[in-house]
Amino acid sequence: MENTLSFADVLKDIHAENLREKLQALETEYGVRKLSLSNPLTDVVYMTGNELLLVKGDFLPPDKRVESWLADEESCNNEPPLYFSESSHRESPLYALQRAQAFYSRFFPEPSFFHPAAALVQLQYH
């Protein structure tokens, strides 16, 4: 039987405290297929019969986690959107997900495979 689960239904109340639980439930409770990847675009892809969920971790070293980051989601002069701190900058994690979506849409061109909105959950590791 084809899996007709909607990721939006399962992940509608996701936040940093329940992220791992929600993602694990996709596999254990809903039978979603998980593909662990090792590439710069996506860390994990979850697949159902008609959707893809792209997951990309935004990992920062401990000294960078305490800094305040200003998000600039607009490209400028052919540069990707950047996040700026007082002492550094980095590529926008949302931009990385947009690149991943563009890549996977070549293989899954059907619009129903992707949701137009992306959610970014920041995890705090102690």
Describe the protein in words.
The protein has about 130 residues and is α+β, with helices and mostly antiparallel strands. The chain has four helices and six strands, in the order ααβββαβββα. It has a three-stranded antiparallel beta sheet, with helices on one face. A hairpin with a 7-residue loop joins strand 1 (about 35) and strand 2 (about 45). The N and C termini lie far apart (about 40 Å). Residues about 115-125 have low confidence and may be disordered.
> Residue ranges: pLDDT <50 for 5 or more in a row?
116-126
Q: What order do the helices and strands follow?
A: HHEEEHEEEH
- Mind describing the biggest β-sheet? 3 strands, antiparallel
Helical content stands at 25-40%
Instruction: Categorize the overall geometry.
Output: globular
- Measured between the Cα atoms of the first and last residue, the distance is 42 Å
Share of β-strand residues: 15-25%
Query: Order of strands side by side in the largest beta sheet?
Result: 1-2-3
- Our Rg estimate from Cα atoms comes to 16 Å
Mean pLDDT over the residues:
78
User: What's the total helix number?
Assistant: 4
Q: What oligomeric assembly is this protein in?
A: single chain
Q: Give the total of beta strands.
A: 6
Structural class: alpha+beta
